[in-house]
Design goal:
Layout (H helix, E strand, L loop, with lengths): L10 H36 L6 E3 L5 E8 L2 E7 L2 E6 L5 H8 L3
Antiparallel strand pairs: 1-2, 2-3, 3-4
Length: 101
């Protein structure tokens, strides 16, 4: 009776190549677009200025009245002001609502 032993030649490399390809695809389709989106959001928040109409991530519409470091005061109605963090201002919602004008 003969025993046949199967040898996997180059086992390490044949395992690493598909794993590297999977990582590359995940980076290209998931991580890279998210990083790009995050950079655009930060750039948008840094360019905020008084008088600009914005939308918060919770959907509150307002006009920038005052900027103090990371706190923004929004005028939501005549003589009605709210304070929100700069991170609460949403680029996507602002563009969606105010780009149609």
């Amino acid at each position: 009776m003969e025993f046949i032993y199967l040898q996997s030649g180059g086992g390490d490399i044949s395992f690493l190549i598909p794993m590297a390809l999977i990582f590359l695809v995940m980076w290209f389709f998931m991580i890279r677009p998210q990083q790009k989106k995050q950079k655009e959001q930060i750039s948008f928040q840094d360019q905020l200025e008084k008088g600009k109409e914005v939308v918060t991530s919770s959907g509150i519409l307002g006009k920038v009245n005052k900027i103090e470091d990371e706190i923004i005061t929004l005028e939501v109605n005549q003589k009605t002001f709210i304070r929100v963090t700069k991170n609460a201002i949403s680029k996507e919602l602002t563009e969606a609502i105010y780009s149609a004008k």
